[in-house]
């Protein structure tokens, strides 16, 4: 492929990308179809397993979800359960330390993370 002119390599890369996107969309349609029709036979089950694996790989490459920020995650958890910063004191330490952590002035320690996990 390196012997091809640069412009041709670029167009080829675009075509391959678009083909993979079309195959991905067709795979999603097929997975939904098989999932909603119980009369599909054993051959469809095997094909479905392979297709689901391929779709998962495509989604991991093109639609990856980044890990959330730890402080934003703690805020979300607190907000969804009606908790206050005072409720974090048994896990993170004193009121001042909780404030420092929530304001991103001090990082979470491994011990704090372990306490929050339990």
Query: Ranges with pLDDT <50 over ≥5 residues?
Result: none
Largest sheet: none
- The N- to C-terminal Cα distance equals 53 Å
Helical proportion, percent range? over 70%
What is the tally of beta strands?
A: 0
Structural class: mainly alpha
Rg from alpha-carbon coordinates:
24 Å
Mean pLDDT: 81
Helix segment tally: 6
Strand-and-helix sequence, N→C?
HHHHHH
Strand percentage, roughly?
A: under 5%
Shape: elongated
Q: Regarding quaternary structure, how should these chains be classified?
A: single chain
Architecture overview:
This protein is mostly helical. It is 71% helix and 0% strand. The chain contains six helices and no strands. Helix 1 (6-36) crosses helix 2. It starts with 5 loop residues before the first helix and ends with a helix.
Task: Provide a concise account of the structure shown.
This protein is an all-alpha fold and 118 residues long. It has helices spanning 6-36, 42-62, 70-81, 89-92, 95-102, 110-117.
Secondary-structure topology with pairs:
Elements: H1 6-36, H2 42-62, H3 70-81, H4 89-92, H5 95-102, H6 110-117
Describe the structure using short key phrases:
118 residues, mainly alpha, single chain, 71% helix
